[in-house]
Amino acid sequence: MKLEIQNLSKSYGEKKALSHVSLTLTPGVYGLLGPNGAGKSTLMNIITDNVRLDSGEICFNGESIFKMGKRFRKILGYMPQQQELYPSFTGWRFLNYMAALKGMTKEQAKQEILQTAKLVNLDGDLNRRLGGYSGGMKQRILIAQAILNRPQVLILDEPTAGLDPKERIRIRNLISKIALDKIVLIATHVVSDIEYIAKEIILLKKGEILSQKEPSALAEEL
Ligand code: ADP
Ligand code: ADP
């Protein structure tokens, strides 16, 4: 399994957000590290087809993901950086709604929701309303919706934003557990979120890749 990002460029007007970004991703966790404005969200938004690229190509197992269209979306899981949760929805209703959007049947949805909720440790909280969830619970249910369809490619944009150290560790453990057979790309500006679970850390700055290295190699450098 392979996701190849080839010579990707994107500008917003005069502002260059990504220039000539190339990456090859195989199963495992990749940390995408860079300061605000580096282009992390833009890269993720292009892979998830929420932003259009100017030039370049992205291929999954040799086939353009843009030509694959719906077929690629079926194997993709995405947790956007900021997502409003309807406070009055219960956890169950939210996941059920997301499952329907992903085209799952009622029966499939029910099975996957129960399993996924266990995995993210929310199986006891599905009847509670999201408005009463803690920050960590909200992040975990967002991860749950991203993995409901058992994606092969999982994109997580700042999955630990705003969380305390204890919850960060919890999310980190959860991600390493679900990452075994997937290509996982995690954007963060917190090195500790990814240094123990990533096989490679990609440093992005001003829309360009500065390096792509194993965490230990990067640690020696810093
Ligand atoms: P990051 O996620 O690393 O913070 P972004 O991908 O959000 O970086 O932003 C990369 C650059 O593109 C920044 O300079 C940002 O201001 C600019 N940018 C992002 N989105 C837009 C947009 N919709 N319109 C104009 N400029 C944008
Ligand atoms: P509807 O789509 O009619 O509103 P629900 O989404 O409430 O129905 O429920 C759909 C199915 O999921 C039903 O079989 C219901 O028993 C089951 N269900 C609803 N909430 C939960 C839950 N928290 N845990 C397990 N099963 C649930």
From TrEMBL:
Ranges in coiled-coil conformation: none
Record flagged with keyword Glycoprotein: no
TM ranges: none
Domain ABC transporter: start-end pairs: 3-222
Gene Ontology MF terms: ATP binding
Keyword Membrane tagged: no
Keywords per UniProt: ATP-binding, Nucleotide-binding, Transport
Family statement drawn from the similarity comment of this UniProt entry: Belongs to the ABC transporter superfamily.
Record's protein name: ABC transporter ATP-binding protein
Source species taxonomy: Bacteria, Bacillati, Bacillota, Clostridia, Eubacteriales
Whole sequence portion shown: 1 to 222 of 293
